[in-house]
Amino acid sequence: MLGRIGFIWGSIGVLSLLIFSVVRLSNIALEFFVYPVHIWHWLALVVWVVFMAYSEGYKGFQQAFSPRVAARLIWLRQNPKAWLVVLAPLYAMGFIYASKKRIIISYSILIMVLVFVAIAVNLPQPWRPIVDAGVVVGLLWGATVTGWYIFVAIRTGTSLVNPELPSSACHPS
Questions:
Q1: Does some domain include residue 74?
Q2: Cβ partners under 8 Å of residue 80, min gap 6
Q3: What is the pTM of this model?
Q4: Is 79 helix (H, G, I), strand (E, B) or coil?
């Protein structure tokens, strides 16, 4: 029962974070249509959206983040620990109870995202909506594919992806 709660809470927490970001940034991205734009703005929008769909959506989420989230949630369902269940979204995203490498990568990506956000909020119009449109596409792809991997995890209960757990999880002392 505790494992199921952790799986559900982790799934809802990760998906909610992604969907909330999509909704919030979509409003800013749609501001693109309010401002007078030139052909190079449209070109920048198309190129950026395609780039973000590939780099963030496909490479970042579909090939790495999303299958790992599902693998970590499967492990939590099968090996529930009360403190990990409480912190299931953070655990699922690899911020806690992960290999040293995974924790370093997860926090490095978080810092990088925060730096990009700090830069993006100061961009002039229409450049901020252009940037946010690409991010929305990447996050929407990510939310969709994460939901899919979680659905597959519910149906199969297995994953071929390494959940990148700490060595103590694999070799208890």
A1: yes
A2: 2, 3, 5, 6
A3: 0.92
A4: coil
Give a yes or no: residue 75 inside a domain. Answer: yes
Tell me how far apart the terminal alpha carbons of the chain are, to the nearest angstrom.
26
Contact assessment for residue 74 and residue 163, using Cβ atoms and an 8 Å cutoff:
yes
Asked if residue 169 is part of any domain, the answer here is no
- Domain enclosing residue 66, as ranges: 2-161
Six token digits for residue 42:
């449209």
Per-residue pLDDT of the chain (173 residues; tens, 9 = 90+): 999 999 999 999 999 999 999 999 999 999 999 989 999 999 999 999 999 999 999 999 999 999 999 999 999 999 999 999 999 999 999 999 999 999 999 999 999 999 999 999 999 999 999 999 999 999 999 999 999 999 999 999 998 899 999 988 765 54
What letter represents residue 102's amino acid? R
Number of domains composing the chain: 1
Domain annotation covers residue 173: no
